């Protein structure tokens, strides 16, 4: 790369490979390649640096923030964040990191252990919230998650906290009864505070393939997701599926998880993400 | 039972009286798309489609079917090759205590699998027990203890500063107590984390497990092969388990792991409950990928 060469089938195939191996998916990759063919006349000479610059700019444009998902940071008190997603993506760990983050900006934080299904889910969150030095509302395994959520919203109000972060059980987006349970949790919150939850974060694992698009669609339908946290970006997976998710659903990535320590959470920066895609 | 795209591609092919490089281009591209959207590995798809094209154009005429139908048959045959031809059994020798080491990336479903695999072994008349060997994840041991109690499966979860030593001691205790299937739950880790991979290598050297199962999330995308190759290099694992197939993920990536490493898929996970484990069937998987 970096020298003049023809935009031939081989270079287009190389680009196709990078995009698909980055989990951007067939459709989005094809439309990016079509844009390239339009902009650079195939079989004409061009600086391949220019080609990759154009490629990165194209993808950056796709990730630029759409107005419909902008919300004011901590505009209300208590600011309520509901955390959702399929099994094992990093919800509980991300909540520990978020709580720590807010606590460090002098906010009063409360976390709710509303995963009453999985073994040791409450114990796991309890260890994280102690590390973050914040309070926890929890209960026994097997209790009704809606009851925990109700108690936690009431507690957030009476204790006058700045932020309430609610952990939920991992669930397949294809299980209707579990998605109904999530809708019920959302209704319970809204009954007490009409415009809450103020944020609904969908946790996606950077290792995921095209199924993440289905997950985003279903969780968006059930709980009006406002943003994505892309976890496990410290691995080798690129997480490119967030590009078709942004294109099709307008859903932006808010944060990224880059490790298993409490400080391993960063604000999503599209430029860095695109650079990493091609590194 | 097949996706719309597959039906369209097959229809185009069936309608061809003669085939040449031009008229099979589009239907083969459709098939490539279906496989990529099922998360089958890019290089695996590329070489598979190249084989299909080569064999289709070089095919000898068979009288009973049209050339287009023959292309479909060639596609199926090539797909079957990467799916593996037989159900690879998880063999449990009756009289010798057997140790199984469970490894994989974070959150893939290892801890849950330990409990499911124990239950599976118990139904086959074995005496399973679980060794907790994850000292990092908050409440990991507790997770196993709770699940063990709920399912009446013994869990040995005493872990000290020396993980390797306490694991060996737990295994000895399990063997002495007469358990003949001993399943070790390890911490989730990145294949690029040298220190953590070294820990597994050391554990393998000290314990000499009979089976090492790489547990992988069924929703994994293109990076799956990289993970598998690295785990193979360091551990030469004996089998793969694909979890979370109760969702609508196609599982093409996990399949690619098996195709590239040559390691068999032994089980699939189809839910969070004790009984949600099945022996892997390659032909059922083909219809999942194409369906
Ligand atoms: N390497 C890495 N591991 C992570 C990251 N985030 C979470 N994990 C790990 O992923 C595993 C699963 O995390 P959890 O927080 O339990 O995931 P969860 O979504 O709450 O899981 P369920 O509640 O069971 O659905 C744990 O081993 C975490 O340490 C990350 O950004 N990087
Ligand atoms: N739906 C479904 N969920 C599963 C399956 N297998 C595991 N899970 C869930 O996935 C989540 C993670 O499972 P764990 O067993 O904790 O995963 P792990 O690999 O031990 O995680 P780490 O130890 O943090 O690396 C839990 O919520 C499990 O209940 C499965 O086959 N289907
Ligand atoms: Mg959790
Ligand atoms: Mg575990």
In words, what does this structure look like?
The complex is a heterodimer of chains A (279) and B (291). Chain A is α/β, with parallel strands linked by helices. Chain A is built from ten helices and ten strands. Chain A has an eight-stranded mixed sheet with strand order 5-4-6-3-7-8-9-10, with helices on both faces. In chain A, strands 1-2 form a two-stranded antiparallel sheet. In chain A, β9 (253-257) and β10 (265-267) form a beta hairpin. Chain A is elongated. In chain A, 47% of the residues are buried. Helices cover 49% and strands 14% of the residues of chain B. Chain B has helices at 4-14, 25-37, 42-57, 67-83, 110-123, 140-151, 163-176, 194-207, 224-235, 252-261, 282-290, and strands at 98-104, 128-133, 155-156, 181-186, 211-217, 239-243, 265-269, 277-279. Chain B is elongated, with a radius of gyration of 22 Å. The interface between A and B is large, with 42 and 42 residues. The complex binds guanosine-5'-triphosphate (2 copies) and magnesium ion (2 copies). One guanosine-5'-triphosphate sits between chains B (104, 106-112, 134, 137, 140, 187-188, 243-244, 246, 269-272, 276) and A (87-88, 118, 170, 172). One guanosine-5'-triphosphate sits between chains A (85, 87-93, 115, 118, 121, 169-170, 203, 231-232, 234, 257-260, 264) and B (106-107, 137, 188, 190).
């Amino acid at each position: 790369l970096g020298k003049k060469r023809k935009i031939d089938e081989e270079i287009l195939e190389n680009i196709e490979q990078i995009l698909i191996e980055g989990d951007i998916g067939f459709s989005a990759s094809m439309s990016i390649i079509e844009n390239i063919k339009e902009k650079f006349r195939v079989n004409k000479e061009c600086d391949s640096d220019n080609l990759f610059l154009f490629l990165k700019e194209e993808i950056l444009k796709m990730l630029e923030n759409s107005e419909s998902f902008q919300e004011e940071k901590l505009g209300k008190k208590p600011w309520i964040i509901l955390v959702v997603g399929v099994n094992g993506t990093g919800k509980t760990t991300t909540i520990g990191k978020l709580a720590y983050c807010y606590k460090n900006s002098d906010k009063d934080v409360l976390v709710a252990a509303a995963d009453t299904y999985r073994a040791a889910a409450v114990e796991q969150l309890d260890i994280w919230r102690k590390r973050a030095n914040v309070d926890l509302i929890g209960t026994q395994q097997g209790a009704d998650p809606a009851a925990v959520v109700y108690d936690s919203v009431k507690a957030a109000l009476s204790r006058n906290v700045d932020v309430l972060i609610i952990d939920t059980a991992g669930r397949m987006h294809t299980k209707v009864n579990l998605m109904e349970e999530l809708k019920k949790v959302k209704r319970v919150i809204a009954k007490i505070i009409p415009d809450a939850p103020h944020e609904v974060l969908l946790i996606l694992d950077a290792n995921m393939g095209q199924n993440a698009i289905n997950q985003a669609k279903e969780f968006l339908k059930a709980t009006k997701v406002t943003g994505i946290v892309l976890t496990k970006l410290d691995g080798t997976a690129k997480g490119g599926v967030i590009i078709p998710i942004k294109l099709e659903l307008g859903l932006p990535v808010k944060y990224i998880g880059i490790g298993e320590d409490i400080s391993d959470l960063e604000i999503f920066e599209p430029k860095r993400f695109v650079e990493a895609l091609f590194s | 039972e097949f996706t719309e795209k597959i039906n369209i591609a097959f229809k185009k092919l069936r309608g061809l009286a003669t085939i040449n490089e031009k008229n099979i281009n589009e239907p083969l591209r459709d098939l490539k798309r279906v496989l990529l959207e099922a998360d089958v590995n890019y290089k695996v798809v590329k070489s598979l489609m190249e084989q299909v094209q080569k064999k289709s154009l070089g095919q000898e005429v068979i009288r009973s079917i049209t050339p287009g139908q023959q292309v479909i048959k060639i596609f199926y045959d090539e797909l079957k090759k990467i799916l593996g031809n037989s159900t690879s059994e998880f063999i449990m020798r009756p009289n010798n205590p057997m140790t199984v080491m469970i490894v994989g990336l974070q959150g893939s479903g290892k801890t849950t699998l330990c409990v499911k695999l124990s239950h599976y072994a118990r139904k086959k008349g074995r005496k399973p027990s679980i060794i907790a060997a994850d000292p990092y994840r908050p409440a990991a041991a507790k997770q196993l203890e709770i699940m063990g109690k709920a399912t009446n499966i013994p869990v040995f979860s005493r872990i000290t500063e020396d993980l390797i030593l306490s694991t060996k001691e737990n295994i000895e205790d399990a063997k002495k107590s007469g358990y003949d299937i001993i399943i070790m739950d390890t911490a989730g880790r990145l294949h690029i984390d040298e220190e953590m991979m070294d820990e597994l290598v050391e554990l393998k050297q000290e314990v000499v497990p009979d089976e090492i199962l790489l547990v992988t999330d069924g929703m994994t995308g293109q990076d799956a092969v990289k993970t598998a190759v690295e785990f193979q290099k360091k551990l030469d694992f004996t089998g793969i388990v694909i979890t979370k197939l109760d969702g609508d993920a196609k599982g093409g990536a996990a399949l690619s792991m098996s195709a590239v490493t040559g390691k068999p898929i032994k089980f699939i996970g189809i839910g969070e409950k004790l009984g949600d484990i099945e022996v892997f069937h390659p032909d059922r998987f083909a219809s999942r990928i194409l369906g």
